[in-house]
Amino acid sequence: MAHVSAAERRPQLIKAAIDLMTREGIAAGSTRAIAAELGVAQATVHYTFGTKEDLYRAVMKQLTEELVAQVERVAPADAGFEETVAALAAALWRTVRETPASHQLLTELTMFALRTPHLREALESHYREITKVTTKLVAEAADRTGHALAHPAEAIARYFLAGFDGLTMQHLSLPDQAAEVTGLQVLVSTIVALADGRLQLVAVPTS
Questions:
Q1: How far is Cα of residue 183 from the mean position of the Cα atoms in its chain?
Q2: pLDDT digits (tens, 9 = 90+) for 120-140
Q3: Do both 149 and 122 map to the same domain?
Q4: How far apart are CA 135 and CA 27, in angstroms?
Q5: Does residue 89 contact residue 184 with C-beta atoms inside 8 Å?
Q6: Is the dihedral angle over the CA atoms 54, 55, 60, 63 positive or is it negative?
Q7: What is the span of the domain harbouring residue 35?
Q8: What is the mean pLDDT of residues 93-109?
Q9: pTM of whole model > 0.90?
Q10: Could you tell me if residue 30 is inside a domain?
C-alpha cells in the first residue's frame, strides 16, 4: 500500500470527521469511528493530529472557513445597503434550510468547546473571524452606498449574528417555515433601522 503523508491525510481525516459527525453527532466522533469512516487505522488519526481535540480544532477551523467563504461569495457588489443586508441574510438562511445538519454540528461543537479548555481558543477564533467578515461587509456596504451608520459596524454585525444564531436554533429545535420567514424579515428590518439610527438604544443595567 502506498504511503500517504500526514499533509495529505489531514484534509481526508477532517472531511471524514465532518461527514461522520454531521450524520451521527459529535458524540459519535471518536478517533476510532473517524478512522473507520476513512478506512484507516486509529493510529493514523493520532499520528496526524495528536489528540481528538486537535482534530476537532481542525474541524472547527474548516467549518469556519467554509462559512466565511459562503458569506463573502453572496455579498452583492452593486446593491443598496438594505438590499445587501437582505441578500446576506437570505443566502445564509438557505444554508440553514439546505444543510441543517452542518449547522447542528457547529452548534454541538460550540457547546463542546465551551467545556473543553483546549478548544476554547478555536471557538474564540471562530467567532472572531465570523464577526470580522460580517463587520467588513456591513462597513463596505455602507461606504459603497454612502450610508452613514448610526452605530459602529461591528455592533451592527454582532446584532445580526446574534439574531441569526437565534433563528437557526429555533429552526433546528422547532421548524416553522412561516414563522422563520417573518423572523428573518424582522431581523433584516431591525438591522437596517439600527444602522439608520431609527432604532434607539435603551440603556440596560448590567450590574
A1: 19
A2: 988 999 999 999 999 999 999
A3: yes
A4: 33
A5: yes
A6: positive
A7: 1-50
A8: 91
A9: no
A10: yes
